[in-house]
């Protein structure tokens, strides 16, 4: 009986851990889903607290300060300065990353996942976040095509959905027809650099 209880508790803990993204990344409203995490006692901190304003004002990644924050559409944003907070509060939609802050290259394949604020690109006055240098470089191989695909999947499938269940579906049983693995994308990037 004791072994059963420990197994049941472990299963319950695993299930609750898996449910965290279901809630954290789906705040409802206009910003659902988002690349948010529960940190510093806040339920949904976008991009692990990166200051979204500095991408636009300095074309740079800057970590925000948890004591300088705003909430917009049930999502918490950190800022590095009071001035950046004021800019955001005046016009929040101007400073939002594309695709909820998920990796733009993942969204090309209808997979809302990842996204590290220190790997980004400003394109046409919009902020695109990537899951790393490889994802960034793959996206940059054909910006118009990849932007069009990401916009299509975001509008038709991802926006308003639950990111966790959507990415589970798209990474296991229903990949898009043009899906490429990380290795395939890395080979394309390497070939383009030759």
Task: Record keyword descriptors for this entry.
194 residues, alpha+beta, two-stranded antiparallel ribbon, two-stranded antiparallel sheet, 8 helices, disordered N terminus
Largest sheet descriptor: 2 strands, antiparallel
The H/E string reads HEEHEEHHEEHHHH
Helical proportion?
A: 40-55%
Number of DSSP E strands: 6
Low-confidence stretches: 1-20
Mean pLDDT: 87
How big is the Rg?
18 Å
Question: Strand percentage, roughly?
Answer: 15-25%
The shape is: globular
Terminal Cα separation, in Å? 63 Å
Q: What is the total number of structural domains? A: 2
Given the helix and strand composition, which structural class is it? Answer: alpha+beta
Which sequence of strands runs across the widest sheet? 1-2
Please count the helical segments. Answer: 8
């Amino acid at each position: 009986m004791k072994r059963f209880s420990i197994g049941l508790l472990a299963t319950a803990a695993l299930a609750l851990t898996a449910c965290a993204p279901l809630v954290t990344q789906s705040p409802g409203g206009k910003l659902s889903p988002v690349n948010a995490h529960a940190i510093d006692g806040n339920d949904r901190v976008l991009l692990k607290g990166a200051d979204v304003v500095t991408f636009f004002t300095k074309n740079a990644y800057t970590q925000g300060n948890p004591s300088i924050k705003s909430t917009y559409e049930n999502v918490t944003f950190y800022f590095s300065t009071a001035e950046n907070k004021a800019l955001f509060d005046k016009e929040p939609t101007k400073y939002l990353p594309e695709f909820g802050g998920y990796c733009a290259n993942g969204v090309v394949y209808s997979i809302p996942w990842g996204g590290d604020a220190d790997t980004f690109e400003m394109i046409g006055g919009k902020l695109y976040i990537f899951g790393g240098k490889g994802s960034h470089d793959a996206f940059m191989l054909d910006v118009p095509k990849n932007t069009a695909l990401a916009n299509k999947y975001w509008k038709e499938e991802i926006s308003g959905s639950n990111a966790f269940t959507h990415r589970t579906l798209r990474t296991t049983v229903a990949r898009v027809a043009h899906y490429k693995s990380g290795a395939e994308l890395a080979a394309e990037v390497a070939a383009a650099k030759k």
